[in-house]
Every structure is written in structure tokens, then in C-alpha cells.
Specification:
By secondary structure, this protein is of the alpha/beta class. It folds into 3 domains: 197 residues, NAD(P)-binding Rossmann-like Domain (Rossmann fold), CATH 3.40.50; 82 residues, Orthogonal Bundle (N-(1-d-carboxylethyl)-l-norvaline Dehydrogenase, domain 2); 130 residues, Rossmann fold (3-Layer(aba) Sandwich), CATH 3.40.50. Helix content is 45%, strand content 13%. It has 18 helices and 14 strands. A 6-stranded parallel β-sheet has the order 3-2-1-4-5-6, with helices on both faces. The protein has a 6-stranded parallel β-sheet with strand order 11-10-9-12-13-14. Helix 10 packs parallel to helix 13 and helix 12 packs antiparallel against helix 13. The protein is elongated and about 75 Å long. Bound molecules: uridine-5'-diphosphate-glucuronic acid. The site of uridine-5'-diphosphate-glucuronic acid (UGA) has 20 residues, from helix 10.
Length: 438
């Protein structure tokens, strides 16, 4: 099958590479000429485990290519995906759909024979209808269907998520469109292990927002319970396990931390709040989630300052700045709230992140960037773990202690056990558990 993927951001690039790996011929299109030149040379603009290799293999097999010219990719394609960005609109938090609508107009001008135009970008309920209207207005005679097929990929494990998804959601109004989507996902459809949810386009669009909002709510819930644990002497790790073993609740996404970040949850929860209000069905629950999470990120700096007994003129070593491990993505990362607040309180920040420092360097002025963990902690007045990269999970505490001015660890991801830290001679502060001292 011939596929055009409009947009080579995170979703478009991963999906394009994975569809080509399923055996389809995929042309990825982007207006950004520099990016396309880089991609043609095999230079992948984002850090995503396995993506370099997947792109290289499929380019070599002739099934994956890149262009800035939409008009050369769309006419031959049986399926055209719109995978452009839908950022929060400045000022009101609505999803900005201008890139989606621009793409729809350009696609309309290039349609030749029956094509399914599929929105993969996260878009508010009703967007696929609007895309259909745009195309119909621009080319009334075009033979096409519009479908919705949201993605549920997590950064850092996107390829695995694409190849072994929990489900595929397809919103389409005609059998013809549904059959094209079945053919696109044929390897998953055939193995019988992947549930397919065929539904209306509006429902499909809402499933995406509802999924992200629910997960964000789950995280926010456990974070509030963590606060309660800190006040009451309970242990959040045991609370998570104790409730997560109930099959109706489930154990995933119950890790307490500094608040959710990333390119999706903050933007999508806000967009859902606006969408729900617009439809006259306001979501007080998700409004609270947005609010509680924003406040939490801000409060984390105070937690660190308290643990240090004030940070004025002290060196704080920060391990991890990306919003989660295995990505270089800094969007809405808790570190963007925490580090400036520590600086404002007088701290000198020395930080290390395995992949995020180039991006972070542009967003966090005044930070001294270290080459590795040990350079970051050397003569610091304490260490703070903000992101749970694997390499921070097995630190050599004897060495660390010898390098630090004070054996103090603030672990905002609960990757260590308080008892072990006391044994290692560290004062240890974590989330939703009592602080301990040797
Ligand atoms: C999220 C969803 O998990 C994907 O299913 C979805 O496709 C994607 O958004 C999207 O809409 O494109 P992602 O943002 O890559 O994926 O990352 P997550 O693994 O969901 O983590 C989001 C944030 O929640 C991170 O800041 C993470 O640290 C935090 N988190 C996650 C917690 O604090 N606790 C948890 O238990 C889980």
C-alpha cells in the first residue's frame, strides 16, 4: 500500500517508519527543508530508541523516503495521514488546528483517485468533519473518505508501542475507509492479538483525549496521595502497590513524582477542558487535574529547598532534566519549573542528563552542564534526581559520598529504597515517604 505521512514530528516519523516496516511504501512529507535534508542523510532529529535503525533499514529497502513536496507524495497514495502538530493555542489553551487545516487544503489540491485521509494528530471532536468539509469545498469531485486514527505511542518506547499496541482505534464512516485501515495495520490485524475498535470519527477523537486525561488523572491522584502519605506517615510505594493490585484499578501509571510533563498530557488535558466547556459539558475533574499538576511542579522546588535547609549560594547537582527517560524532549518538563525556582532562591545548578542537555541548554540559562554524573555531583551540597534514567538507578554511593560536600539525596522519582540510603550514609528525601537520616 502507498502511504503519505504529512508531518515528520515525533508521531509522523515514528508512524511512517513503522508503517514502512510493515511493508508499505511510505513517503514522509515536511515543509521544513533542513529537517528533510537531515532525514535523507539518515540524521534523525529526535532521540527515540531504535528509530535510527528502523529508518535506515526501511530507507535502504526503498520503502521509506522523505520530501518537502506534498504534491509529489499525495496523488499516488491510497492513505494520507495528517500527523502535524496541534499545539496549545496561545492565550486560551484550545488545540491550534491551523496546521491540520492547512495540510487538509494542500492534500485536497493533490487528490487524484480514491484516497483515505486520516487524522493522526490529536484533534478535538469534530475536526475530521471539518477536514472533510475543507477537502470537499476545494475539490468537490474528489473521491475520498476522512478517518480518525489516534496514536497512543509513548516517547521512549514508541516503536514497541506501535508494533505491539494495546488497541487500534479507527473512526470511519464507510466500509471502504475501514478496509484501507485494516490493510494498513494488516500484520496486527492478522495476529489476532490486537483489539480493533471501529467507531465513529467523533468517538475516536474523544477516545484519544479521554485516554490521556484519564492517565493524567491517575498520576495526579497518586501524587495527591503521596502528599497525604508525607503528612500521615504512610508509604506511597505500598499504597500504589496495594491499590494497583486491584484489577479494576491496575498498577500502571501509579508512580508518584514531580508531576506529569511532556508534549501530550499538559496540552491534551488543557484542550479537553476547553473542548468540554465549549460543548457545555465542563469537566471539573480534569480542570482540577490541570490545576493540581501545575501547582505540584511549582511546589517541588520548595521541597528541595527545605531538604537542603535553604539553597542560597549552595551548589545543587541535578540528575535528569527531560520530562521522562529515554527521550531528549524537554517540553513541559518539571525541571523547567524547578530549576529556575532554585536559581531564584540563590542556588548554583550543576546538571547532567544523558540526552537532554542540548535542548535543555536553550531553555535553562545559567545552568552549568556536566559531562557525567560524577562531574555534576563533585563538591555539590546535595543531589536531586529529577528524571529516572536507568544510569541513575545504580549509582556508586561510596564514590558519590566522597565527591559530595554533604551526603544528601532528594529523589523525586522514588528510585531508591530509604533503608539502603541510610545504610549508604545518606540523608534521603523522596516522594510520599518519610525522610530518613543515617
Ligand atoms: C503519553 C501517553 O502515555 C501515550 O499513550 C500517548 O500516545 C502520548 O502521551 C501522546 O498523546 O502522544 P508520553 O507523553 O510519551 O505519552 O509519556 P508518558 O510515559 O505517558 O509520561 C507522561 C508524563 O507522566 C511524564 O512526565 C512521566 O514522568 C509522568 N508519569 C508517568 C508519572 O509521573 N507517573 C507515572 O506513573 C507515569
Amino acid at each position: 500500500m502507498r502511504v503519505a505521512m504529512i508531518g515528520t514530528g515525533y508521531v509522523g516519523l515514528v508512524s511512517g517508519a513503522c508503517f514502512s516496516n510493515f511493508g508499505h511504501h511510505v513517503v514522509c512529507v515536511d515543509k521544513d527543508g533542513d529537517k528533510i535534508e537531515r532525514l535523507k542523510k539518515g540524521d534523525i532529529p529526535i532521540f527515540e530508541p531504535g528509530l535510527n535503525r528502523l529508518v535506515a533499514d526501511n530507507v535502504a529497502s526503498g520503502r521509506l523516503s522523505f520530501t518537502t513536496d506534498l504534491t509529489s507524495a499525495v496523488p499516488d497514495a491510497e492513505a494520507v495521514f495528517i500527523a502535524v502538530g496541534t499545539p496549545s493555542r496561545r492565550g486560551d489553551g484550545f488545540a491550534d488546528l491551523s496546521y491540520v487545516y492547512d495540510a487538509a487544503s494542500e492534500i485536497a489540491d493533490s487528490l487524484k483517485s480514491y484516497t483515505v485521509v486520516i487524522t493522526k494528530s490529536t484533534v478535538p471532536v469534530g475536526t475530521s468533519n471539518k477536514v472533510e468539509q475543507i477537502i470537499r469545498q476545494r475539490q468537490p469531485g474528489a473521491e475520498f473518505d476522512v478517518a480518525s486514527n489516534p496514536e497512543f505511542l509513548r516517547e521512549g518506547s514508541a516503536i514497541e508501542d506501535f508494533q505491539r499496541p494495546d488497541r487500534i482505534v479507527v473512526g470511519a464512516d464507510t466500509d471502504r475507509a475501514r478496509n484501507v485501515l485494516r490493510a494498513l495495520y494488516r500484520p496486527l490485524f492478522l495476529n489476532d492479538k490486537t483489539p480493533f475498535v471501529f467507531t465513529s470519527r467523533e468517538t475516536s477523537e474523544l477516545i484519544k483525549y479521554a485516554s490521556n486525561a484519564f492517565l493524567a488523572m491517575k498520576i495526579t491522584f497518586i501524587n495527591e496521595m503521596a502528599d497525604l502519605c508525607e503528612k500521615s506517615g504512610a508509604d506511597i510505594q505500598d499504597v500504589s502497590r496495594g491499590i494497583g493490585l486491584d484489577g479494576r484499578i491496575g498498577s500502571k501509571f501509579l508512580n508518584a513524582g514531580p508531576g506529569y510533563g511532556g508534549s501530550c498530557f499538559p496540552k491534551d488535558t488543557l484542550a479537553l477542558v476547553r473542548l468540554a466547556a465549549e460543548f457545555g459539558a465542563p469537566s471539573r475533574l480534569i480542570e482540577s487535574v490541570v490545576d493540581v499538576n501545575d501547582n505540584r511542579k511549582k511546589r517541588m522546588a520548595e521541597k528541595i529547598i527545605d531538604a537542603f535547609g535553604g539553597v542560597k549560594d549552595k551548589t545543587v547537582a541535578i540528575l535528569g532534566v527531560t520530562f521522562k527517560p529515554n527521550t531528549d524532549d524537554m517540553r513541559d518538563s518539571p525541571s523547567l519549573d524547578i530549576i529556575p525556582a532554585l536559581q531564584a532562591a540563590g542556588a548554583i545548578i550543576r546538571a547532567f542528563d544523558p540526552e537532554g542537555m542540548v535542548e535543555a541548554g536553550k531553555m535553562l540559562p545559567g545552568v552549568v552542564w556536566a559531562k557525567n554524573t560524577f562531574e555534576a555531583v563533585s563538591k555539590a551540597d546535595g543531589v536531586v534526581i529529577l528524571t529516572e534514567w536507568n544510569e541513575f538507578r545504580a549509582l556508586d554511593f561510596t564514590l558519590l559520598k566522597s565527591l559530595l560536600r554533604r551526603a544528601l539525596l532528594v529523589d523525586l522519582r522514588n528510585i531508591y529504597n530509604p533503608r539502603d540510603m541510610v545504610e549508604a550514609g545518606f540523608e534521603y528525601h523522596s516522594v510520599g515517604r518519610s525522610s530518613v537520616k543515617p
